[in-house]
Design goal:
This protein is of the alpha/beta class. Helix content is about 25%, strand content about 25%.
Length: about 725
């Protein structure tokens, strides 16, 4: 195998698997090896010439000798008890009930009257501290002067005495013989000093390590478990596990006001990313980001002092290191590695600025829950690769790799063969597209409450996971990840404070009503509404998905109903007749649709405002696709955007239609919706990709609208030439 087809691949390794690792390394062209949580590097593997050694490094866990001797500096979290109904004028609440005792331990070291709160949730009012008492021996809060048939809860401060990621790996891999790892807080003076001394000592003792992979830095995303060892709450973006009395005191000193437990708990919503963030929570996020990035920089500088590279894993303890945040660049990290669940998560990693390289860890993990007798892990492997490849063609990672136990993968020869094919194809793509921006006719902006800081992260749990109620929206990101458009993420405040950037052609607002992604009360701002209306009227496009611009006001639920041509019936206007729900016989947006629009979750009672609304599709008397002319631009409504090749084509057509550019659609285009076309002007190359496991035939249109019929094998990627002078393609 030629040298140029080697490299850009990181191979996970484990002890007592030396010869087989050498074989996999040769076949997959690996130029780097790494250990994983629960594995160690074989000493012989560290000496392979020309292969970089990645070593995992846990900053705030994996050191129980320190943690168990300084439990007062364990990481902490505010949590809320179950709702308990009072039946007379007193009530005892067993506030630990439902939590996992192995993970959540009440903090009795600090003043409960200062940090804890008791709420009457029926009135949603906090009780005075003299109305309740804490029984530490029995873990009970006793409340007096309660109101019968009102519900009450206890907000309490707790230590996190088991790292959630290690707990997941512990349970998944049955690590019953391993010690449960306690995470500690670097805001604690002893812990802060310890992590720096420990890293320097580790660097001295591990000279063979080339790359230190921080997994990650200090604070885990919000994840705690119930008493059945099942997830009780998870938010991959949550800052709940970063609190402490030290942090609260430092915050108050800087900002001049006090944060309380309820600012983090929010009646059990725990500042979910789906909730519009309060100003207090935004202040806290900014506060913690500055602290984390400052402390992380000190560790990265130390790694650089020893002549090594520093990369971070985008997961686990990544809170405060937001890669699209204001302070990430200051860390000076060399690279970011993250888990790739599909196109959206690949773009999440690949688009990260201010790093030398990005690396994706592809699925499946080499874990026993996938690699067992009778299962075919190749199926997940190929689904993951094909869905990610279309995003790679828009913006590639610099490296790829896998995780887990290679001894498990080695037992599946077909799987090993396919990985060999994938790594070769990846290197071929990189040779053609790295540092070579693909052609994009349009720039599309996703509008929500979070904006840039959540680039490619809307509607996400983690690693392309989504909630049942949001797959209708997450499909939007998956579709866009491989479409031939440029994508930006903007917030409502961006528009209110700065207007709409000149390079944006189409704005998409998607999400359920009352969420941060639809916008909720952000739409109560007249400046926002006026700005978008004027912008669309001047010739731009607005696409609403689900319940866009939803905020009940002035007789409208969708505040941009005039642009979209539709609104949602809440029951207030049932007495007003609605006559315009008959779909058109055909339409530009659905021209390639082979079956009924599969939008995902249904949105009830969407109706047309007038006969001017183009009703394109409906489902049980609720409009599922509509369009409406608005000055020189258009609004387009889609009930949902579940990911599929067909829906990706509907989205692409919606973008063109919203801009009144139907005549331009059959240029730089592949007619078969199972295929996609990308053009690279700098290298004068063209990539035509088959996104299915079946042979496909398609018409490929060049810049002039001339077409050529091309046949593709299953999953094939075919390269062609782009003649810049004539605008034509050849394969």
């Amino acid at each position: 195998m030629k040298d140029k087809y080697k490299g850009r691949v990181t191979l996970p390794v484990e002890l007592d698997f030396y010869e087989e690792t050498l074989e996999l390394s040769k076949r997959w062209g690996a130029d780097a090896i790494r250990d994983s949580d629960g594995t160690d590097l074989d000493a012989q593997l560290k000496l392979i010439p020309g292969v970089k050694v990645y070593s995992k490094y846990f900053v705030a866990r994996g050191d129980n000798e320190f943690a168990l001797n300084h439990m007062e500096e364990a990481q902490q979290i505010f949590v809320m008890s179950e709702y308990i109904t009072a039946y007379d004028d007193t009530l005892d609440i067993e506030f630990r009930k439902g939590f996992l005792d192995k993970q959540i331990v009440p903090n009795y070291d600090h003043d409960s009257k200062r940090y804890w709160q008791v709420y009457d949730r029926t009135t949603n009012e906090e009780l005075d501290t003299d109305q309740w008492e804490l029984d530490k021996e029995n873990d009970i809060v006793s409340i007096k002067n309660t109101i019968a048939f009102h519900e009450y809860t206890v907000n309490f401060l707790a230590y996190m005495v088991w790292d959630p990621t290690q707990m997941y790996n512990y349970i998944t891999n049955n690590w019953t013989d391993r010690e449960r790892e306690v995470p500690f807080d670097v805001r604690g003076p002893k812990a802060n000093k310890h992590v720096k001394e420990k890293l320097r000592d580790w660097l001295e003792k591990n000279p063979e390590t080339d790359v230190v992979r921080f997994t990650t830095f200090f604070y885990h995303f919000t994840l705690f478990f119930n008493d059945q060892e099942k997830e009780k709450f998870v938010d991959w973006f949550g800052y709940g596990s970063s609190v402490s009395p030290l942090a609260l005191d430092a915050f108050e000193l800087e900002y001049g006001y006090t944060l309380k437990a309820e600012d983090f708990i929010q009646a059990g919503y725990y500042n979910s990313t789906f909730k519009n963030p309060s100003q207090k929570y935004l202040d806290y996020i900014d506060f913690q980001q500055r602290f984390v990035c400052k402390e992380a920089k000190e560790l990265v500088d130390l790694v650089h002092e020893y002549g090594k590279e520093a990369i971070m894993f985008l997961g686990d303890n990544w809170i405060g290191t937001e890669p699209y945040g204001k302070y990430f660049e200051s860390i000076g990290i060399d690279g970011v590695v993250g888990s790739v669940g599909g196109g959206a998560t690949l773009r999440l990693i690949a688009d990260i600025p201010h790093v030398k390289y990005t690396e994706g860890r592809f699925l499946p993990y080499f874990f026993p829950d996938t690699f067992y007798e009778g299962n075919d892990p190749t199926i997940e492997l190929m689904e993951n690769w094909v869905s990610s490849r279309r995003a790679i063609l828009r913006n590639p990672l610099n490296r790829i790799g896998y995780g887990g136990y290679p001894s498990l993968a080695y037992k599946f020869p077909k799987f090993v063969d396919r990985v060999e094919e994938i790594t070769d194809e990846f290197r071929g793509i990189i040779d053609n597209v790295e540092n070579n921006k693909p052609y994009a006719k349009h720039t599309v902006a996703i509008l929500n409450s979070w904006g840039k800081i959540r680039t490619w992260q809307a509607f996400m749990v983690a690693h392309a996971l989504y909630y049942q109620e949001t797959y209708s929206y997450f499909g939007l990101l998956e579709s866009l990840s491989g479409l031939d458009v440029d994508v930006k993420f903007i917030s409502f405040d961006d528009i209110i404070n700065h207007g709409i950037d000149e390079d944006i052609d189409v704005i998409i607002n998607a999400g359920d009503a009352h969420t941060a992604f639809s916008g909720d009360d952000a739409w109560n701002n007249p400046t926002l509404v006026k700005s978008i209306r004027s912008w669309v009227h001047d010739g731009h496009g607005f696409i609403g998905i689900g319940e866009p611009s939803a905020y009940e006001k002035g007789g409208r639920f969708f505040q941009l109903a005039d642009i979209l041509g539709i609104d949602q019936e809440l029951g207030f206007k049932l007495s007003t007749d609605k006559y315009h729900n008959l779909p058109m016989p055909s339409h530009f947006i659905t021209q390639d649709m082979k079956s009924k629009f599969d939008y995902g979750e249904r949105v009830r009672n969407i109706y047309a405002l007038s006969s001017q609304t183009e009703v394109i599709a409906d489902d049980k008397n609720s409009i599922s696709i509509a369009a409406n002319a608005y000055g020189k631009g258009r609004g387009v409504y889609l009930m949902g955007m579940k990911y599929s090749h067909e829906n990706t084509r509907i989205l692409k057509r919606s973008i063109y239609y919203s801009l009144q550019q139907e005549d331009e659609f059959n240029k730089v285009h592949s007619s078969n919706l199972e295929t996609e076309l990308n053009v690279y002007p700098q290298s004068e190359s063209v990539a035509l990709v088959n996104n299915t496991s079946e042979a496909q035939k398609t018409l490929v249109y060049d810049f002039n609208g001339n077409y050529t019929c091309i046949e593709l094998k299953e999953n094939e990627l075919k390269w062609g030439h782009y003649n810049v002078e004539t605008g034509s393609f050849s394969f």
